[in-house]
Amino acid sequence: MFTTNSSDPNYDIYVSIIQNKTYWTSLAVFGFIFAVAIIAGNSMLLYTIYKDPHKSLRTAPGFLIVNLSVADLLLGVFSVSIVGVRDVYRSQQLSMPFLGIFKAVIGTVSTSTLLVSSYTIIAMSATCYVAINQPMEYKTIMKTKRIKIYIAVLWVMSFATCILPLISVSKDTYTMIYLHTHATFPAILLTVIYVKVFRAVARRTREFQQSGCNKMVAKSLERERNMTVAVITILVLFYITYMPQYITIHLSYFCNPCQRSVTFHEIDVALSRLLCLNSAINPFVYCWRLPKYRQALKDCWKICRGAPHRGITGQGTPSHSSQMNTSRIV
């Protein structure tokens, strides 16, 4: 088992565990690619929503998308990019200067933003279910004020989670709290919500088919099929990005041979970077596939070029999506 008696907050234990320059260099390259993709994609999305000429994106689900994008952008700027720099130092078998400060920044930002992202995706998924199952009551249920309160509570909860280590909560207890709040509960909730979504889609499809074949029915069926594909994509991405790290964290605590294996630590560190993948692709999964967001982006581009813009005609149905992890971006 790898241990150290160093009390130096700037000590990087992974420098002594994994002494492979190519490994760390590869992680640094991928880290910078993820950082650029996250920052560019989410900055463009936030700019589009802010500059949208007709303000058609400032709806209740639109605020959830903004919240998700802000969380992803913070992760890219204050966590993923710093981790990339740290990997460069690790490739040279050096500890990054002021590592103690950067560890605190990375841990706080990762823990808070990943929790916000996960539960924002859950809320977006819930709006999708309400839109399908209760279309007539949708606007009454999904009010902007309720969404704003939910977002505020979410950020307070995320920062409260970050301060647990400062109030004498043991590392093991904190890790278990982190795992279950960032992965277990979101995975269960998303699965339950999407099972309900699938059932609602199937019921609506039967209703459309029984109403006869016409252009409106065909269009509705196509929309339901597209929504089903989006749901499957979201679930697959969530499990791909969250579950591997979820498994390795448990193994690092309960598998003694794993704790002594350099290969295991290499896999564990690499899988922690998968958590950043969600933040890079969220704008494409949740926004750019929607006509109204693509049209708003085109309008903003025309404004930047000084050209007149057309009215935005995209339909405003809510979207949905997800992401785990934390100070485990090691």
Q: Could you give a quick summary of the protein structure above?
A:
By secondary structure, the protein is an all-alpha fold.
Order of helices and strands: HHHHHHHHHHHH
Q: Considering DSSP H and I runs of 4 or more, what fraction of the residues is helical?
A: over 70%
* Strand residue content: under 5%
Number of DSSP strand runs: 0
By helix and strand content, what is the structural category?
mainly alpha
Which spans have pLDDT < 50 for at least 5 consecutive residues?
309-326
Largest sheet: none
Rg is 22 Å
Distance between the termini: 18 Å
Number of helices: 12
Outline type: globular
Polypeptide structure, described:
There is one protein chain. Helix content is 75%, strand content 0%. It has 12 helices and no strands. The radius of gyration is 22 Å and the shape is globular. It starts with 12 loop residues before the first helix and ends in a 26-residue tail after the last helix. 37% of the residues are buried. Pfam families: 7tm_1. This is Adenosine receptor A2a. GO terms for molecular function: G protein-coupled receptor activity.
Notable characteristics:
330 residues; mainly alpha; 12 helices; 0% strand; G protein-coupled receptor activity; GPCR_Rhodpsn; transmembrane helix; transmembrane; G-protein coupled receptor
